[in-house]
């Protein structure tokens, strides 16, 4: 029965609930009941915004802000726009936002939607754990889990940013920030002014020190990754490895200090590999053939099918994996300059969430500014943005580092316990391959596959950063009453 309204629409109830800080699956329920969105697309307070850096983070932020009607100019130091590296995962927490903004028009034909993620034992590829992505992620989290070529992702964001009215200027290196005015100075001497400066200038950001007032250098994590692609037709031609491209899947082999993540990209025409390993001490510049040789040595003795795949790699990039400690704030004290993306919270890529966090940062910023009813409200909007994004950035850094422990056990009791728990979490007693520990000999105290862990996956993929901003804002408003 409908509630009695006497012809008058009931007023929306403002919910005064903070996201729980303790582990609870009730968060799922809470997230399923949304606060009221501010339906108007264009923000009441239109401001002039400079974005520094046209990487995935800077372009996504430019889209989010331009979409709300702000006057956005993005300055990029490179002479040409582009992205280094091959594949990237676009999990539902970022895909939901990007598709809402209209990225699908440029991206839909270029993505792959893998059916599942399969964890495998390093030595023989035996299945340890499986996370269904299709249709589960669309159903549970309201958006697909995509994998895509970085160049396609970047180009799509660039096209969307321009369509939404942002200006993107290349060959424009920022050499100095004035966070009080605020303004930027370019290497060619030009000075540009705005109401707000958003630095999305990557892990080696020069803006970070200006924002926090303290120097924070990126840290070597002790890991590096070889990144490579293989033409899918070459894989199909070999019956021993053709199975890996028969169905679009993410496969992840885990072993002592190392792992290999693979998936198809470029509408399934190309096959992407990321091979993480301990960073060797050599400071000497290696030739391409030395890097290839080193890659093969690193994975000697691994699953013969993986070795066969690696034999099809003729060129690879070696990429040291660096991260940042959590920095004190993402907003300068004068409330006219902020930092986001890798410059604020660079993390190990083991949750596949670095770029997704930058997309969320941009979305949350646009939402926080959208709640400002006048320019005087902007410092408060940035305060809310900082509170929401700082916590999320720090937590995702933490979750990423945890995978670096969970995936890299050498064979022994910890690895056996992990494999048993993974198998139990995914398959119950019906272990695949028949080589596992019987399911009824272990109790599931938690799932070491963070994609499967119910709480982690809800927190990671079900998270709605715009909703988190609105929730925080309504809480603050009510606290003042
Ligand atoms: C091996 C690997 C795998 C990964 N996999 C995933 C994944 O699957 N999913 C995911 O979400 N993330 C992944 N990531 C993380 C992701 O790549 C990064 O988090 C993301 O690209 C960061 O984007 P950004 O825009 O913040 O920084 P960047 O990409 O570093 O962009 C910074 C931009 O700023 C420009 N710039 C810098 N200084 C200046 C200046 N002074 N003036 C003007 N311009 C300037 C730079 O030229 C650059 O274009 C992975 C990372 C690695 C290393």
Determine the N-to-C terminus distance: 34 Å
Number of H/I helices: 17
Could you say how many structural domains there are in total? 3
Number of strands: 17
According to CATH, what is the class of the largest domain?
Answer: Alpha Beta
Based on CA atoms alone, the radius of gyration comes out at 23 Å
In CATH terms, what is the architecture of the largest domain?
3-Layer(bba) Sandwich
Share in helix: 25-40%
Low confidence ranges: 1-17, 433-441
Mean pLDDT: 90
Q: Looking across the biggest beta sheet, what order are the strands in?
A: 5-4-13-14-15-12-16
CATH superfamily of the largest domain: FAD/NAD(P)-binding domain
Structural class by SSE content: alpha/beta
Strand content: 15-25%
**What ligands are attached or bound here?**
flavin-adenine dinucleotide
Largest β-sheet summary:
7 strands, mixed
Gross morphology: globular
Oligomer description? single chain
Q: What is the CATH topology assignment of the largest domain?
A: FAD/NAD(P)-binding domain
Family: Belongs to the paxM FAD-dependent monooxygenase family.
Protein name: FAD-binding domain-containing protein
Organism: Lithohypha guttulata
Domain FAD-binding: 47-373
